[in-house]
What we know:
By secondary structure, the chain is an all-beta fold. The protein has no helices and eight strands.
Amino acid sequence: MASLFGAGVAMAAPAQAYNCTWDNVCLHSDSDFNGLVRDDFSSRPNWSQITYYGGQPAVYQGDYHPDNVSSINNMDPDSRVSVFYNSGYAGPCFKIADYGRVKNMASIYITSTKQANDNMNSHRFGDSCLGSTYNF
C-alpha cells in the first residue's frame, strides 16, 4: 500500500476563522464575517485607500463591487462605529453598536432603494452619524 505522502499528495490544514482584535473593527468582504478581512484600530476617511490583509484589493473599489465590505465586526467595547456612504465621513450613514456587529449589510438600506452592502466608503469610531444603530 503506497503512502499518500510518498506519492506527493499534501494534506491541507482546515481553514481557520479570523478572530478580530479586541478594541478594533474588522471589515469583511463577504457576509457572515467571511472572505477578505481588514482588522483596523483607526478611523478611515476613504476605504479606497486601504486594503484587506495581503495588500489587495482595496476595501472599496466603487459601488456594487463584490469585494467591497459586506459585514462588520466592532470589537470596541466602549465605542460605536459610524459607517458612511461617501469618503470623508459624509453622506447617508449608520452605526454599529459598541461590541456589536452587522453580519449582512444587505439588510441595511441607506436610502429607500440602496443597500449598504458593497456601497459604503468610510468609517469613524464614535457617534458622528445620525443614522440608526445596528447589532445583528
